[in-house]
Structures are given as structure tokens and as C-alpha cells.
Design goal:
Strand content: 5-15%
Largest sheet: 4 strands, antiparallel
CATH architecture of the largest domain: Orthogonal Bundle
Strand order of the largest sheet: 3-4-6-5
Number of helices: 5
CATH topology of the largest domain: Topoisomerase I, Chain A, domain 4
Shape: elongated
Helix content: 55-70%
Distance between the termini: 53 Å
Radius of gyration: 22 Å
Number of strands: 6
CATH superfamily of the largest domain: Ribosome-recycling factor
CATH class of the largest domain: Mainly Alpha
């Protein structure tokens, strides 16, 4: 029975990691408000090395539609500005010599719908991933049953536990998706 718990724990660990990855990806989908996560993938050429923007500047949201980027080293301001412009985020930073301001234009209805479609595709891919984790865990349990390592009752019991776990994580994905969709559609 101990090995069955290991299978269940491994399945849950994979699902938890997938939820973490989903949250990161959802953070990249623009909503009506400025969000520092949008810049999380921006790499800046800093003293010849490609460095994440968060490591060389503080990013804050002084207003709902604006990000404020304060470099720790003012000499890197031009490099940060260039990195944001070339990051294919449709953002145009404005420099005052000490800080950068990035204004987020309000999303159009068409853009909102496009982001909701993008979100729904992302959510569906993660639900599929959860079902694949379930299938892998069930296959391991069924193999143990076929090899007579566990009884049929134990096999069904653990498959039920795996299903409950899958349902829990799929519901979590749906809940996070609904919250994000409301953020996107909020004007």
C-alpha cells in the first residue's frame, strides 16, 4: 500500500507544479490593468550579459494603467528601454532620464475577446495535462493490479483517489480561469 501512496503523492506533486506554471503563464496575459508580471520575461543586456529586468530595476504600479521602472543603476536606463521595446509586448516606455513609465492603453473589446480565447486555450491545455497525469498514475496502479501486487479493490480505491485529485485540480484551474477572465473583461 505504501507504493500506492507514493504514486498518489507523485501525481499530486506534478499537478501542483503544473498549477504554478499555469499561474505564471496567466500572469503574462494582459488585463485592463498594468501588471508587473507582463515584464517578467524581459531580458536586458547589462554589462554584456543578458539579465532579467527584475534583477536590475524595481517595477511598481503607481496607477492602474501604468508601470514605473526604477533602475538600480541609472546608466542601464537606455538598455532597459530598448529591451522593453524589442520584447514584442506592444509597450512603449517613456523615459525621464531617471525612471521609465510604461502606459498601458485600455484594451479594446476585440483585444479583450482575443485574450479570453487565449486564456481558454491555455486553461484547456492544462486540463489535458491533469488528465494525462491521472492516466499515468492509473496505468501504474493497473500494472500493479495485473502483476498481482495489489488487490482489485485496492486498485479501484486508489483510482478513485486519483480521480478525486484530478477533479480538485481541474476545478482549481477553472476557478483561476474565471477570476482571470473577469480581470480581462473588467473595464
Amino acid at each position: 500500500m505504501e507504493i500506492l501512496q507514493v504514486i498518489l503523492d507523485a501525481c499530486e506533486e506534478k499537478m501542483t507544479k503544473a498549477i504554478d506554471a499555469l499561474e505564471k503563464e496567466m500572469g503574462l496575459i494582459r488585463t485592463g490593468r498594468a501588471n508587473p508580471k507582463v515584464l517578467s520575461g524581459v531580458m536586458v543586456s547589462y554589462y554584456g550579459m543578458s539579465t532579467p529586468l527584475e534583477q536590475i530595476a524595481s517595477i511598481s504600479t503607481p496607477e492602474a494603467q501604468q508601470l514605473l521602472i526604477k533602475p538600480y543603476d541609472v546608466s542601464s536606463l537606455k538598455d532597459i528601454e530598448k529591451a522593453i521595446q524589442t520584447a514584442d509586448l506592444n509597450l512603449n516606455p517613456i523615459s525621464d532620464g531617471k525612471v521609465l513609465r510604461v502606459n498601458f492603453p485600455p484594451l479594446t473589446e476585440e483585444t479583450r475577446k482575443m485574450h479570453v480565447r487565449e486564456l481558454n486555450n491555455l486553461l484547456e491545455s492544462y486540463k489535458i495535462q491533469m488528465r494525462n497525469f491521472r492516466r499515468e498514475a492509473n496505468d501504474e496502479v493497473k500494472k500493479m493490479e495485473n502483476d498481482k501486487e495489489i488487490s482489485e479493490d485496492a486498485s479501484h480505491s486508489y483510482q478513485d483517489e486519483i480521480q478525486k485529485l484530478t477533479d480538485k485540480y481541474i476545478k482549481l484551474i477553472e476557478d483561476k480561469g474565471k477570476k482571470k477572465e473577469l480581470d480581462i473583461l473588467e473595464i
